[in-house]
Prior knowledge:
Layout: E1 9-11, E2 14-15, E3 19-34, E4 40-56, E5 80-86, E6 89-105, E7 111-119, E8 121-124
Antiparallel strand pairs: 1-2, 1-5, 3-4, 4-7, 5-6, 6-7, 6-8
Amino acid sequence: MAVAGRCPVSLNHSKAIYAKDVDVDATKNQTLHALATGKVVRSQGAAKYAWTITFVCPEDKAQFVQLQDGGIDSDSNDELTISYTKGGESYMLLDCGINSDKTSSDQDGKLDQVLSGVATARRRTA
């Protein structure tokens, strides 16, 4: 049986050619309520979506404006859409916002930029 080993990702419908690691975390709070009758029931909250993408840094300039100066510092609330493929399934994260922009480097030639954020919704597209 063959398995998928990569997760292609796009930002605003353009392939993120410098992306190397993709993490999408979907959570939905679940609460158990013990009733006076002895019965236990469950309620659930709204789904929440968080994402993290690690990019390698090209020598000339970043591929997306969100990775350049002003990406996280911009006062505009421009919508960012992230699409990714997990095996044979494709998903789109809608109305994404950046809440973290981290750059790290080491002496072995590694220079990464890590963007993290949240999305208001996730839709399966294929």
